[in-house]
Amino acid sequence: MKILTFTxxxxxxxxxxxxxxxxxxxxxxxxxxxxxxxxxxxxxYEIVIGIDEELIPxxxxxxxxxxQQPLKKESQDVLYDISNxxxxxxxxxxxxxxxxxxxxxxVQKQSISSSSHQNFVEPKELKEIKAEINKLTDKVKxxxxxxxxxxxxxxxxxxxxxxxxxxxxxxxxxMNREHLDMLMQITLEHMPLRMxxxxxxxxxxxxxxxxxxxxxxxETPVMPGSKKVMMLVxxxxxxxxxxxxxxxxxYSFLMEKKYKVGLVxxxxxxxxAVEQLMQYARMMKLGIETVVDPxxxxxxxDSLKYCDYILIDTMGSSPYDKNKIEKIYECLNANNTQYNxxxxxxxxxxxxxxxxxxxxxxxxxxxxxxxxFTKLDETMGFGNIFSLAYxxxxxxxxxxxxxxxxxDLVIASSDFLVECLLHGFNRSKV
Length: 430
Ligand SMILES: Nc1nc2c(ncn2[C@@H]2O[C@H](COP(=O)(O)OP(=O)(O)OP(=O)(O)O)[C@@H](O)[C@H]2O)c(=O)[nH]1
Ligand SMILES: [Mg+2]
Description:
Elements: E1 2-8, H1 11-22, E2 27-35, E3 44-51, H2 82-93, H3 106-117, H4 124-146, H5 164-172, H6 177-190, H7 199-213, E4 228-233, H8 240-254, E5 261-265, H9 271-284, E6 287-290, H10 296-303, E7 309-313, H11 322-333, E8 341-348, H12 353-363, E9 370-374, H13 383-392, E10 396-400, E11 409-411, H14 414-423
Parallel strand pairs: 4-7, 4-8, 5-6, 5-7, 8-9, 9-10
Antiparallel strand pairs: 1-3, 2-3, 10-11
Helix pairs in contact: 7-14, 8-9, 12-13
Bound molecules: guanosine-5'-triphosphate and magnesium ion (MG).
Residues 236-242, 267, 273, 316, 374-375, 377-378, 400-403, 408 line the site of guanosine-5'-triphosphate.
């Protein structure tokens, strides 16, 4: 393989030069800023391309080595943890032929590979017409996106038109700007040259990166002889009690194995709150314990020791109400059983990223294990959810997508979240 370098005022300008000189066959290895923009001086970027020697067009004349830009060792102002990103990208590069293939079931994969082996040869003219139509469709999209009048961040000036659609979709999803720019930077730098041609392949690549970056806690059924204890905490009215009822129904009736489920209510200040869960417990014939003071917490857990799952409902607290959060903390502290309690922070997806972050910080003294997002049916943008999980590195365990018990509960998956983020919530895809 031959290593060639090209320079330009932006990475996309350098890329255009590369395409003009050596066509589309090269593989982008590195992009770096070799000269910072300063007063009266343009920035200068260098891209490094690897290409098989026999694919270099005869018309291409390589500059003598002395005239090429020196390769700098370190790149300044690194936006993100590059080693981490590179590891993820190298995983992604294994699936770049068709990033979606990774998520297909074996039957789908089989049918794709067997159909590709069939001897069907498309007539050349038809292929050309299809390619022209694809190019035209893409150009229309690019023109549409040029009318998008969002205030341009610095990075946007360097974004090639084919990336504009995905950038607009992600920006409108409520994703934190820094996260979006970082994701875009990774996509720009690591995407194989020949995938940059049209916005559909750019979108697929970006989706793959997003999927890899969402932390998800997979649901693992409780092992025989052990127990799962989950406590749902969060602001008032976010859907904790409703979610407990959905989870209780799921574990006791809806999984392959039927588990024994018990409920504990810490919310004893409001009669209504206890009554709400009591009704569900009666309907599903579940054991239920109420706790007024922290010392009763251990007794309540002990009396449900015959259960496989114990679900604990708590009083809703404003994220600023330190007293109520403190009360929950005292109960957790008073736990004298050997059970490990999974603390699930429940938050509505309908609030913006900054508010989710404040909520998370105020509840973090409870030692949050996973995140659960509710009311996905009441919002349009899902970038806030992605950003919170990405920023806090706390995995998402469940989504609640409506008021119906038990059906409006979704086991978290990165596929589902990325689909919501880019195309909105669609009940038929649940
Ligand atoms: N649209 C929609 N409504 C929901 C969802 N989850 C819960 N709700 C509704 O939100 C309201 C509050 O739900 P609760 O489960 O009582 O909320 P909570 O967090 O227990 O409230 P407090 O105990 O008062 O803190 C109810 O009307 C629920 O039906 C959801 O995913 N989507
Ligand atoms: Mg409640």
